[in-house]
Design goal:
Elements lengths: L1 H21 L8 H8 L2 H6 L2 H18 L8 H5 L4
Length: 83
Amino acid sequence: TASYELNELVAEIGACFIASELGIPQSENFENHTAYLASWLTKLESNPNWIFKASSQASKVTDFILSFQSGKPVEKELEEISF
């Protein structure tokens, strides 16, 4: 379904955000990521707003997860995330 696919895209973008923020080394082999993201190409072409919605939600999820580093979870922001 569309919501499941959107959630997958949010998770993939969020994983990239978190890895970047934490300085987790990335492999130079992006074959799996490329194939995974290619599955959304049709959806993104038919609805360009999808990428903005997914990126926005991934950013909120990333902020929430990273808030645990400071010991102060951002519960209010998590409530604003709609999947």
